[in-house]
């Protein structure tokens, strides 16, 4: 069953984020993942949360693939670039 992950990014270090973006696609593909939707114009329409700089919906073949992607030790450097670009939260839906 297809799984989705919501990525909420607030970018404070654009250079690190640019380096992450160069490698993120291949890292996702390794586990069958792909971006379904990317927005730089997200807007909170209910509640008091601050809208992220970038919001992404990722798709994976299943929940196990999403967890394999985030926990893959070979991708630690790629994830570190994302983490170093600001704050991020990834929620498996």
Secondary-structure blueprint:
Elements: E1 3-11, H1 14-30, E2 34-39, E3 54-60, H2 63-71, H3 76-84, E4 86-92
Helix pairs in contact: 1-3
- Which class do the helix and strand fractions yield? alpha+beta
Task: Determine Rg (CA atoms, Å).
Answer: 13 Å
Order of helical and strand elements? EHEEHHE
Helix content: 25-40%
Principal-axes geometry comes out as globular
What characterizes the major β-sheet? 4 strands, antiparallel
Mean pLDDT: 97
- Count of domain modules: 1
Q: What is the terminal separation in angstroms?
A: 12 Å
Number of strands: 4
CATH architecture: 2-Layer Sandwich
**Arrangement of strands in the largest sheet:** 2-3-1-4
Task: Count every helix, treating DSSP H or I runs of 4 or more residues as helices.
Answer: 3
CATH topological fold name: Alpha-Beta Plaits
Taking pLDDT < 50 over at least 5 consecutive residues as the criterion, the unreliable ranges are none
Strand content: 25-35%
Written description of the protein model:
With 93 residues, the chain is α+β, with helices and mostly antiparallel strands. The protein has one domain (3-92): Alpha-Beta Plaits (2-Layer Sandwich), CATH 3.30.70. The chain is 38% helix and 31% strand. The protein has three helices and four strands. It has helices at 14-30, 63-71, 76-84; strands at residues 3-11, 34-39, 54-60, 86-92. It has a four-stranded antiparallel sheet with strand order 2-3-1-4. The longest helix is centred in the first third of the chain and has 17 residues, at 14-30. The model has no long low-confidence stretch (mean pLDDT 97).
